[in-house]
Write a structure and sequence with these properties.
about 100 residues, 6-stranded antiparallel sheet, single chain, mainly beta
Amino acid sequence: MWVSAEAGFLHLGDPAGIELRDAMLWSIAAARLVSRRIALVVTASGNTSALEGFGAPAGAGAGPGVQIGDGILTVGPTRGLNSASPAYAIDVGFTVAVFHR
């Protein structure tokens, strides 16, 4: 089993005609190999609101992952956790191990 967490910052600049706020991004995932190359992956992610009056989007999902070398390719449905998120989406990701024990 492995667990990963990510945090990020998105500078949106100062476009004319709209007031945007920079966004903080976050993500957490856990995966467990169910066979030699197949994993079950669970994720949650979101960010702070970039527009005043709009909520901060967040979503969670789960799906299969296929081990490719040192990485895992995942594809799965995601469910929005609030009104600022799409009700449903497809999440595609590729995670590569940087450090090994």
